[in-house]
Amino acid sequence: MVWTLRPQLADMVERMIKGAYQQSILPVEERELARMRIAQLNDCVACSGFRAPSVLEAGVAAELYENVADYPTYPGYTPRQRLAIEYAERFATDHASIADAFMDRMRELFTDAEILDLTLCVAVFLGLGRTLTVLGIDQSCAIDV
Question: Which of 51, 1, 10 is nearest to 28 (CA)?
Answer without folding.
Answer: 51
